[in-house]
């Protein structure tokens, strides 16, 4: 379990992996649009999913000005780098759509 320290009262709140992913990507990429969808249920029972673990597979759509001038591989690397600790602690797979604001029609 991952706890985040929140608020001035020292309250520890259990955050879902989806919430942590959103927070990390928003912080690093300053996203104009950020959608995080947990699709782990589609992978339950697969060999790589131990004990039918939850929050292992996600679809991520992110629109960020930080992607300007970056090719697709570099954009994906930016997402993976922001989520490195999640990938080391049970996040198994991410499907990424990474666009610039112009590409997204903003």
From TrEMBL:
Identify the InterPro entries for this entry. BolA (IPR002634), BolA-like_sf (IPR036065)
Q: What is its main location?
A: plastid
- Write the record's keywords in alphabetical order, separated by commas: Chloroplast, Plastid, Transit peptide
| Gene3D superfamilies cross-referenced by the UniProt entry | BolA-like (3.30.300.90)
**Which Pfam families did the record assign?**
BolA
Write out the annotated subcellular location. Plastid, Chloroplast
Q: Which GO terms describe its biological process?
A: iron-sulfur cluster assembly
Per the record, the similarity remark reads: Belongs to the BolA/IbaG family.
Q: What is this protein called?
A: BolA protein
């Amino acid at each position: 379990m991952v706890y985040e320290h929140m608020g001035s009262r020292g309250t520890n709140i259990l955050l879902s992996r989806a919430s942590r992913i959103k927070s990390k990507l928003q912080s690093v990429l300053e996203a104009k649009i950020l959608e995080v969808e947990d699709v782990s249920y589609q992978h339950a029972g697969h060999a790589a999913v131990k004990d039918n673990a939850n929050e292992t597979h996600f679809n991520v759509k992110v629109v960020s000005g930080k992607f300007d001038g970056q090719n697709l591989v570099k954009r994906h690397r930016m997402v993976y780098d922001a989520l490195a600790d999640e990938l080391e602690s049970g996040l198994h797979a991410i499907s990424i759509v990474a666009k610039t604001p112009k590409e997204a029609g903003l």
